[in-house]
Specification:
single chain; 15-stranded mixed beta sheet; 15 strands
Length: 360
């Protein structure tokens, strides 16, 4: 039985003061109690939080809100500020949320208090919206429920995903839904694991000298999108390479970088805990088909060697469908909603058909 606490003067809302390991342990612990056994849960690791939010401490913690009861962490909601472009027009936004509240404090106003302070900071700094993803599940999504009641919230798109299963047996054992587990096993009978590409000509691992070429390719792709992050050089360098955690493979004819794939490893808890990979950016519009296939095949072989059970690419218009199918990806129904949570009462994003927003 969970003992619940009431709001009181001891609950303090301030910037998160812990380590990446503290953030990982708290958020995963809360989510596992809320969703464990009913829906897949992302295991946000210390390496992930250091890479995305805490590599620029203390600047990175300005929008990492936390609730403390004395010295004890009892709530989180995290975000990072970016310059976004919405149909070509720049505006200040943020990506979040990692909303989690200690079950003993549910109903004590902790989440509302954290959002009130984050909203105050957003309005002060001119941040017009926070973007995040909620999971489409037959079970209650507590984050979606909270944001729809407490912020100016829009569902701006539903996001299906392309998935290339690498370890079919592990995926079948992990899959919470039995029909999908059986499907994974069946696909494994004829698909097998990704093979090494016959040639890696024009494809190689990212090095720091590739930053300008990757950023140019991303901005060219972003110009065709409704919504994307217009990174500063230093932040995008971290996105592509940080202590070996994210993986980036580049491609081009000659020495120029004309496309790239950028993904990160993350475990997922279903019936078992399983290592997976999520692609943040697949930018290949300027590559010929043969090089698109070679780039994807190289990344899949690398993911296989890392021990990842599958690699997932959030769908958007403009993806290389032929190359994805050629390398064994399958499109699965919408699993996520991209939502906008604005601190302003009258701010509206509208329907987004094509976004370049990393899945978080």
């Amino acid at each position: 039985m969970i003992q619940r606490f009431q709001t009181g003067p001891m609950i303090d809302i301030r910037s998160f003061e812990g380590t990446p390991a503290d953030a990982s342990a708290f958020i995963f612990g809360v989510w596992r109690r809320a969703y464990g056994g009913r829906a897949p849960i992302a295991v946000w690791t210390p390496e992930f939080f250091e890479w995305t939010l805490m590599s620029r401490v203390p600047q990175g913690t300005e929008y990492m809100m936390a609730a403390y009861d004395g010295p004890t962490l009892v709530g989180t909601v995290f975000a990072e500020a970016f310059t976004y472009r919405l149909r070509g027009a720049p505006f200040k936004g943020a990506g979040g949320s990692w909303l989690a509240v200690d079950p003993r404090y549910l109903g004590a106003g902790v989440a509302k208090s954290m959002w009130a302070e984050m909203r105050r900071r957003y309005l002060r700094d001119g941040i017009r919206s926070m973007f995040g993803f909620t999971y489409i599940t037959k079970h209650a999504d507590l984050g979606q429920k909270f944001w729809s009641r407490n912020a100016n919230t829009e569902v701006v798109s539903r996001v299906p995903c392309w998935v290339r299963v690498i370890d079919h047996a592990a995926t079948a054992a992990w899959e919470p839904e039995r029909p999908l587990a059986l499907l994974s096993s069946a696909i494994g009978l004829f698909q097998g694991k990704p093979r090494d590409p016959a040639s890696r000509d024009g494809v190689r691992p990212y090095v720091s000298a590739d930053l300008a070429g990757c950023l140019r390719a991303l901005r060219a792709e972003g110009a065709r999108a409704d919504l994307f992050i217009d990174y500063e050089d230093e932040r995008f360098a971290t996105q592509l390479d940080y202590k070996g955690y994210p993986k980036t493979v580049v491609a081009g004819q000659g020495s120029a970088v004309e496309g790239f794939i950028n993904y990160f490893p993350i475990a997922s808890l279903g019936r078992t805990e399983m290592p997976t990979g999520i692609v943040d950016y697949l930018v290949v519009s300027e590559l010929p088909y043969e090089l698109q296939v070679r780039l994807l095949a190289t990344a899949l072989a690398q993911a296989r060697d890392q021990g990842l059970a599958y690699l997932m690419v959030p769908h958007r218009s403009g993806l290389p469908i032929r190359a994805l199918l050629k390398t064994g990806f399958n499109l699965v129904p919408p699993q996520f909603r991209l939502i906008s949570m604005s601190p302003e009462d009258d701010f509206a994003i509208g329907r987004v058909r094509r976004s370049l927003v990393p899945l978080r």
